[in-house]
Design a protein that fits this description.
By secondary structure, this protein is α/β, with parallel strands linked by helices. It is built from 11 helices and 8 strands.
């Protein structure tokens, strides 16, 4: 229960907003994303934050880092996953937990090495990219950190689709994912089965009718198994912090431990007993990230 309280408290009591500057970037496939910046462009170091499912630059952790990192000497860039910046994207696709191809072109778009941070879904996608790129990633990323990443998507899906998790978190996520998906169907008739999507009540049902087929997967099991970052951790070559609370309601402790049995020497695993899902105390989280990135 403490994990739930920590998760919810962080979301409903966010830090104050800071001023952000927005740029629109055209994607390689003819779509767009919006990227928000905090801090002076002349800063020597640049951090890039990949947000979580249905998050944005206004999420509580983004607000936290948009203040803390510039104060510590970084400029922060927050690229939005497609459709998450307040405007629907152009193409018949959205974003997903294993979208390492999206991470790849965004990272390469920056003209200098970055420090990369991923939260939840963004952390999983970042870790998967780091593992896929292995040593080649060191040309683009100096250090990386993943916070509350669902390293095993099938385990996370099972956890979110049952009990209190389903009543609180899954229902909350689907309350925005389903309307956005149905709006996409209006723009692209026949894209998926509207009745099945409208009737979805779990992540398994939603991902099977929408996320998986729109992004080239055979179904939900193929999507979850192909997109999990856990199997890629042993191939990471960039110094990387993996920070997950043992009481995270999105990923049970036993699945967290199993997903991290094989890791590269440069991967630092930190599993505090408390913190929920991205529910770590804000001052502590910012300080820990800055401490890791500054070394």
């Amino acid at each position: 229960m403490i994990g739930h309280l920590e998760t919810i408290r962080a979301a409903i009591f966010p830090p104050p907003r800071v001023s952000l500057r927005r740029e629109r970037w055209e994607t390689p496939d003819g779509d767009f994303i919006d990227v928000d910046f905090a801090g002076d462009a002349g800063r020597q170091r640049l951090a890039v934050l990949f947000h979580g499912l249905e998050g944005c630059s206004d999420s509580h952790y983004a607000r936290l880092l948009a203040r803390a990192l510039p104060q510590a000497g970084w400029q922060l860039a927050i690229p939005h996953w497609r459709g998450c910046s307040g405007e629907a994207n152009r193409l018949p696709r959205a974003y997903h937990s294993g979208d390492s191809a999206e991470v790849d072109w965004i990272v390469r778009k920056f003209s200098r090495p970055i420090d990369a941070i991923g939260v939840s879904l963004g952390g999983n996608a970042l870790l998967k990219w780091l593992g896929e790129r292995a040593g080649a990633a060191t040309a683009h990323v100096r250090k990386a950190a993943a916070i509350s990443a669902p390293l095993d998507l099938a385990a996370a899906g099972r956890a979110l689709d049952r009990g209190l998790n389903r009543l609180i978190y899954t229902r909350m996520f689907l309350s925005t994912l389903k309307p956005k998906s149905l709006a996409k169907l209006q723009a692209f008739p026949g894209l998926f089965d509207a009745e099945r999507l409208s009737g979805s009540r779990t992540f398994r049902e939603f991902d099977d009718v929408f996320t998986a087929p729109l992004h080239g997967f055979r179904g939900v099991d193929h999507y979850w198994s192909s997109s999990s970052s856990g199997p890629w951790l042993e191939h990471v070559a960039v110094p990387t912090l993996v920070l997950n609370a043992r009481n995270d309601p999105f990923l049970p402790e036993q699945d967290l431990v199993t997903a991290t049995r094989k890791t590269a020497p440069c991967v630092l695993l930190e599993f505090p007993p408390r913190g929920g899902h991205v529910g770590f105390p804000g001052a502590w989280l910012a300080a820990r990230l800055i401490e890791f990135l500054q070394k």
